[in-house]
Amino acid sequence: MKQINDLNQMYYFAQVVHYQGFSAASRELGIPKSRLSRQVAQLEEHLQVRLIQRNTRHFYLTEIGHRYYQHCQAMLIEAEAAQAAIESAHFEPTGTIRVSCPVTLLQIHIAPLIFNFMQQYPKITVELEASNRAVDVIGEGFDIAIRARTRLESEDLVAKILSNRHKVLVANTEWLQQRPALTHPQELVGLPSLGLGKPNQTFMWSFQHPNHGAWEQIHFPRLITTEMTTLLQAAVNGLGLVELPHLVVEKHLATQELSMVLPEWLLPIDIIHAVYPSRRGQLLAVKTFLNFLETFYKQDQESTPSQ
C-alpha cells in the first residue's frame, strides 16, 4: 500500500476548498497564502493528480479533486468527533471504570456508595470484582482496588487513605451486662471468642494502652471463619467476643446491639484505602470516583465519635 500523505496537507486542502480560495482560507485560518499554496502543491505532487485548477480569476475542483475533498471532509468530521470524545472525558465523567473490593467492605459500605455514584453519573459504567484476593491492579487492568489492611504495603501504586481507625473488640450488649465489668485483657481469658482466619493458626488480640503499654492476649475461638459478616452476626447473637473493623460494627454500636469491650485498650489500626496505577493521564471518571469515596468516608468518620 502506498504511504498516506501528510494529514496536515489534507486539512489545508479541505480548508482551501471550504473557503473557496487560497486568499479566503488564509484570512480565516491566519496562515500565509504562500504556505497554503505550497502545501496543496506538495499534496498534488504526492498524489500525482491535479486537485484544483486555479489562475488569477478562477478556482474550481477537478473531478478527482471533488471526490478527494469528500473523503477529506469525512476525515475531518471523524477527527472532530475524536477530539470531542477526549474533551468530554476531561470535562464530563464518562466511560468504564474497573474496581476491585473486598467482599465484606462491598456489602457494608461500597455497594450502596456505588449505587449512589452511578445515579449521579449516568454516563459511567462500573465493572466490579468482589474479591478478598490482592489483585494485580496494573497486570489485570483495574483502575482502582479498594483494600482494608493494618498497614500500607510498598508497591508501584498510588494509595489514597479513606479511613484510618482502630479495630474494636465487641460483644452482644446484654451478654456483657450479665458479666462483671472488664478492665484488663487478662480478664478475657476463658470468655467465648470468635476468630477471623483459618484453623490451626494462633489467634491473638494485640492491645495498646496509653498508660499501661502493650499487651497480647491469646484466645481460642469457638467459631473460626474467613467471612467477616458471619462473625458480626455471631457476635450480635451473643456467641462471644470478636475483633472487627469499626466500620463493620458501627451501626450495631449505634443501636446498642453490640458494645465495645475494653475501649481504652486500643487494637491495631484498620486502614481502608484505594490504590491505583498513576495520577498522570487518569480519566475524569476515575478521579470522580476516588473523590466520591474520599468524601463518603470523611463524612462517615466526622459523623461517628472516635474511639
> Per the principal axes of the C-alpha atoms, what is the gross shape?
rod-shaped
Total helix count? 9
- Detail the poorly predicted runs: none
Binned, the helix content reads 40-55%
Radius of gyration: 33 Å
The neighbouring-strand order within the major sheet is: 4-3-5-14-6
Profile the largest sheet: 5 strands, mixed
**Would you tell me the structural class of the helices and strands?**
alpha/beta
Q: How many strand units?
A: 14
First-last Cα distance = 71 Å
Beta-strand content estimate:
15-25%
Series of secondary-structure elements, N-terminal to C-terminal: HHHEEHEHEEEEHEEEEHEHEEH
Describe the structure.
The chain is an alpha/beta fold. It is 41% helix and 24% strand. The strands form five sheets. The chain has a five-stranded mixed sheet, covered by helices on one side. Strands 12-7-13 form a three-stranded antiparallel sheet. Strand 1 and strand 2 (59-61) form a beta hairpin. Helix 1 (7-18) crosses helix 2 and helix 1 (7-18) packs across helix 4. The longest helix is centred in the N-terminal third of the chain and has 29 residues, at 63-91. The N and C termini lie far apart (71 Å).
